[in-house]
Amino acid sequence: MTWDEAELRAALREGEGERLSAGHIVALGQARQQRRHDRLRNAAVAVVVTGLLGGGVGALTQLNGGSESAGSASANGKNPAAGGDTYAGAVQEPAHGGVGGSEGSQPLAPVPSPGQQAVTSSTGAVGSGLDSSRTRCPKHPSVVRTPAPNASGSTDPLFAAPVASVTVCAYYTKLAQGLVAPPLTGRRTLVAAGARTLAASLDAASTRFRADLCPFAGVRTFIVYATSTSGGRLSPVLVDASDRCGATVTNGTAVRYAWQVPTALEDLTR
Amino acid sequence: MRDETAFRAFVEENGATLLHAARLLTGDHQRGEDLVQTVLTKVYLKWGRIDAPLAYARRSLVTAQIDSSRRRWWGERPTETLPEHADADGLAPSEDRDQLRRLLAGLNPRERAVVVLRYYCDLSEQEAAATLDMPVGTVKSTCSRALARLRVELTAGGAAQ
What we know:
The structure holds two protein chains of two kinds. Chain A is α+β, with helices and mostly antiparallel strands. Chain A has four helices and eight strands. Chain A has a six-stranded antiparallel sheet with strand order 4-3-5-6-7-8, with helices on one face. In chain A, strands 1-2 form a two-stranded antiparallel ribbon. Chain A is rod-shaped. Chain B is an all-alpha fold. Chain B contains seven helices and no strands. Chain B starts with a helix and ends with a helix. Chains A and B meet through helix 1 and helix 2 of A and helix 1, helix 2, helix 4, helix 5 and helix 7 of B.
């Protein structure tokens, strides 16, 4: 059997003529387009929800970090009652490598303080190891409870080792609303003698609880991040200076009362 | 905005030809319908953004068929006999037509595409080359090889009968 191209064409054309339903194709196209739109919409919704959840979790973590700290202190046999809620970074390790607020190892000017040694300045170099000047201040302090005045460990030293450098993060808001987290208003780093002097001043404050009522001075909080001479990071110390009778200082275990905030630190909250 | 009326007219005018081409390309009645349906849906979604819908549809047809034949689960092997399939018009196929269809299905997808485009769609070698995105020389050689195979197979089949 032989054939030519014309026969091939004719053979290929046999059986053609069955028509297609355009309506069916259009319906399929519309359904496919709808599925595509649905997928895009779902993807967009997923992105938005993920973003909102991420932001919410971040905010909750920031707000609840202090509560976890209080729970930790309680688990260690410390009584967290008596002092009330305080904004603190006392057991929250800050991030490092960044900066916030005013910069560098700028020393504080000496400030006389009744019954306490003033914070002094120094530009001495910090030894090897971690440097507090690289500490980044959180945007807001966490909320923790100050331990009871007679709780176990409340008279222990605020700093567990000799201090080489400190970074003070300052927070302030004049609002007197419940759990309003004050924003970061300033930052100051002290090294060598300046850091040692500030640490000693904090530690030397009274261990006796005072019950007198004092005028409210706004939510004024400092967090002191200290580095030891061996380069280790020490537990952060909270300074609550929300009233005018002197600040309450705590590291979550030890507590001091009526500490007079040096003017140079107060200036960070203005 | 998609011009649905124009698309419907396009399907009315070219749907039958595309469907038959798809059946020739796939060698299977149902798969041909699936293929043309997929391609025309694609054309519908791009309607208004393509300059030459018929050329686009033809190209999509052969590309989809060649691609699908590369997939393992659609992999084609030459067989002694073709599987039974329903006839397009419900009529008993003529002996020659049946034999030619069997031989066409025995070609590889690219050869089959060239034969269908050249001898069913009546495209020139240049148009077939553009549709298949291959050089004109390759279309010529592929077509020549495919026809030679068809002749040999048909002669051998005729001699056997």
